[in-house]
Amino acid sequence: VQLVESGGGSVQVGGSLRLSCAASGFSESAFPDYAIGWFRQVPGKERVGVSYIGSATYYIDSVKGRFTISRDNVQKMVYLQMDDLRPEDTAIYYCSAEYHGDWGPFSASEWDHWGQGTQVTVSS
C-alpha cells in the first residue's frame, strides 16, 4: 500500500489549494472499503485529523464550509479542496488510509497507512 500526496504550496490568506492523494497497492474491490483521511501536523504538536471520506464525509469544525473532500475510486484518488485558507491552516498535510476507518476513532494512532506529507503554508 502506498499513498502519495501532492498539491501543497504557499498561498496568501483567503487563497485556495487542492491536495491530491494517489493510492496504490489496493485491490479494486477493497479500495472503496478504505476510509481515506487527511491529517495535519505542525512542529511540536501532534498530528490531528482534518477530514475523512468513507461511507460518509467528516470535517473538523474549523474547516467546515472551507474544505471539501472527494474521492475517485476508479482512479484511486482522493482530493482535499481547501478554500479561504487561514494562517492556522499552515501545516504538513498527510493522507492516510484505514480499512473502514470511518467506523472507529479519527485518530492518527488508529490509522495504519500514511503518505509522506505535503507542506501547506498560508501567509498573511
Please explain how this structure is put together:
The protein is 0% helix and 51% strand. With 124 residues, the chain is mainly beta. It is globular. Strand 5 and strand 6 form a beta hairpin. It has no helices and eleven strands. The strands form two sheets. Strands 2, 4, 5, 6, 9, 10 and 11 form a seven-stranded mixed beta sheet that branches.
Q: pLDDT below 50 for ≥5 consecutive residues: which ranges? A: none
Number of helices: 0
- Give the terminus-to-terminus CA distance: 37 Å
Given helix and strand content, the structural type is mainly beta
**Topology as H/E string?**
EEEEEEEEEEE
Rounded mean pLDDT is 96
- The overall strand count is 11
Shape: globular
User: What is the share of helical residues?
Assistant: under 10%
